[in-house]
Design the sequence.
């Protein structure tokens, strides 16, 4: 049985919430393997405490926190006593809304999604051990492969948690978010290019592009998971037209189309067992980088980051 660390609620209210959470998790995980779940944490400041936890475990410090979106939950995998463990951080507002009839469905799906990550982390460990854990060290192909792995993990969690999702609301929210992100993409890239031309720091530009492109691809991945679950062909055609209108603003439709096809193909092979399975998805990540004026050239003399 996992523990609940509730830093927000007190007394009888905390006991009531903790009991309800244990019951909810048991129900949502009936077809999942969450044996590695050690703790569910309800922090007072989610972003701050997630980053502190990641630092304490020597992990990559990463959590969505920008003008477009802020994380409301985060699953973190780590090793303790040579064993894989997972913790889930859940925003206090998500916990509170579980007891609100109008908001509870979305909150239940968020927790379900995180439990699916734990199931997926357990499966990934069987085949890749700790390859995708810890701070990144490696060459460029390993960077794009790492991005591909995380994107596919998000796709898997979205598909596995589909039963509790409000399909129409999720699709509408994701399309609106993608629209805002693509419309603001040029201003972000211009800012990064301006910074690069002033300090000539290609590594910093690469870092910014990685973060920015991943956030964009992450939203596209959510939409792909929803579209790939649609069986109504007329609705699918209409939705694809809507996505096309959004993505053509900056020529991202090719990326979106290839991403959707590859994610669907990989999910048909799930679980993945070889690093090579991520190769095509990693190529799509690098295509997205090129659309953001970054090309990576590798030859006998090393690696060159070409910024135009």
Sequence:
């Amino acid at each position: 049985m996992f523990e609940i660390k509730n830093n927000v609620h007190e007394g009888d209210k905390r006991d009531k919430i903790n009991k309800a959470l244990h019951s909810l998790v048991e129900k949502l995980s009936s077809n999942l393997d969450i044996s590695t779940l050690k703790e569910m944490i309800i922090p007072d400041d989610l972003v701050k405490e997630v980053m502190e936890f990641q630092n304490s475990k020597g992990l990559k410090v990463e959590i969505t926190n920008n003008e477009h979106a802020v994380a409301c939950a985060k699953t973190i995998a780590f090793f303790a006593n040579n064993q894989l463990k997972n913790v889930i951080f859940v925003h206090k507002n998500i916990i509170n809304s579980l007891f609100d009839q109008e908001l509870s469905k979305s909150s239940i799906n968020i927790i379900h999604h995180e439990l699916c990550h734990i199931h997926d982390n357990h499966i990934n460990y069987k085949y890749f051990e700790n390859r995708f854990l810890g701070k990144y060290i490696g060459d460029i192909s390993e960077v794009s492969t790492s991005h591909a792995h995380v994107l596919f993990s998000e796709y898997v969690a979205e598909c596995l948690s589909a039963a509790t999702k409000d399909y129409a609301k999720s699709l509408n929210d994701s399309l609106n978010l993608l629209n805002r992100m693509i419309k603001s993409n040029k201003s972000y890239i211009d800012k990064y290019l301006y910074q690069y031309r002033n300090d000539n720091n290609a590594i910093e530009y690469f870092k910014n592009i990685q973060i920015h492109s991943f956030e964009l691809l992450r939203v596209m991945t959510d939409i792909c998971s929803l579209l790939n679950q649609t069986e109504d062909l007329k609705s699918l055609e209409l939705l694809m037209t809507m996505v096309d209108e959004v993505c053509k603003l900056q020529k991202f439709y090719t990326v979106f189309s290839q991403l959707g096809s590859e994610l669907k193909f990989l999910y048909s092979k799930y679980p993945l067992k070889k690093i090579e399975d991520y190769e095509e998805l990693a190529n799509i990540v690098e295509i997205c980088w090129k659309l953001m004026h970054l090309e990576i050239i590798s030859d006998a003399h090393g690696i060159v980051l070409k910024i135009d």
Observations:
- The first strand starts at residue 3 and ends at 6.
- The mean pLDDT is 88.
- The CA atoms of residues 140 and 169 lie 37 Å apart.
